[in-house]
């Protein structure tokens, strides 16, 4: 399906630039409401957001549009993206809307949708919403306007859900943790979850002001967490992104534990206990070492295109439960319908408690190949797809692939969430993958001028 507005992860862009404007959000709320009421008559939608200052504006605009279409609205305030998925299910709402640009800076914002089942909207529903956006906005009769209410106990409900995803007998007493909330949506949730389970928690990135989300903290900037873990002598650190659907860890030595590491830990543990329920889905970015480790454990492993939408599609196709991305977006389908940073972290913590082992020891069986990732920012007006089709760039990739042979691999792709071309080179330990990735990134930059 060719989408005008929807990307792989909803609608996203710079605030004030089309389509991330107040008038578009008003129309988007109305169009969504019209699609829902055509199917169900009366409908109810939940709206949550991260901590960006623009969230106030877009929350009001979406609420107005939904009300004009005759849809009742339940406002959750700042909540992690996976919390909206969970609460949409438990409140039996017809859809959930998240106002967030995830790991992007505060200048960006976006919209994500969840179905009544807490999963991504089906392509055909997105297509109907886009088609409705082309229609003139009309308002239902005054007696049919939608009502709005705030859900005051939303944080407490989600905190209890997170704790319920690991057995009651698992206690975090004795664990010293540093938690980095990226000044984002987990700031008032994650600390309570870990403290209530017994951990000693210190915080960074937990004082949002509307402008500092993801600013030098969080899963995209782990240096702050590494420094805090080492300085405080903590057992581990946990970092979320701005909307809480991603997580990265840091062990006691300051070593970064990414999504591939987390997938390995959860898969190995659930497989050993006979609870994996099939295989594991990674992505084209997943490290070769993860695939090799899955093969050694005799766990089926498949790569999807990058993006949680594609991971979820492959999981649904196979009826599997566990998948994710090296960026830290992990889907634990046995307890949650979407990627959930807090839930994923708890799965790892439960393993540490059960096995009485540090993260370093638990990861001894995973030998990852060196991997380098360089992001090249697109210039305004650049067409990422056309750029990747340039003959000179395709030749540069082919030459590097020939140079690597069976000792490595190359991946160039356009980011689905930011104006970036991502250059990834992976290879055996004797290769300087950083230099090779930079060389290819320079070729991309040269085409951009």
From TrEMBL:
Domain Alpha-D-phosphohexomutase C-terminal: 373-442
One CC-aspect GO term: cytosol
Catalytic activity: alpha-D-glucosamine 1-phosphate = D-glucosamine 6-phosphate
Molecular function in Gene Ontology: magnesium ion binding; phosphoglucosamine mutase activity; phosphomannomutase activity
InterPro entries reported for this sequence: A-D-PHexomutase_a/b/a-I, A-D-PHexomutase_a/b/a-I/II/III, A-D-PHexomutase_a/b/a-II, A-D-PHexomutase_a/b/a-III, A-D-PHexomutase_C, A-D-PHexomutase_C_sf, A-D-PHexomutase_CS, Alpha-D-phosphohexomutase_SF
Keyword annotations: Isomerase, Magnesium, Metal-binding, Phosphoprotein
Protein name: Phosphoglucosamine mutase
Organism of derivation: Halomonas ventosae
CDD domains: GlmM
Protein family per UniProt: Belongs to the phosphohexose mutase family.
Lineage, broadest ranks: Bacteria, Pseudomonadati, Pseudomonadota, Gammaproteobacteria, Oceanospirillales
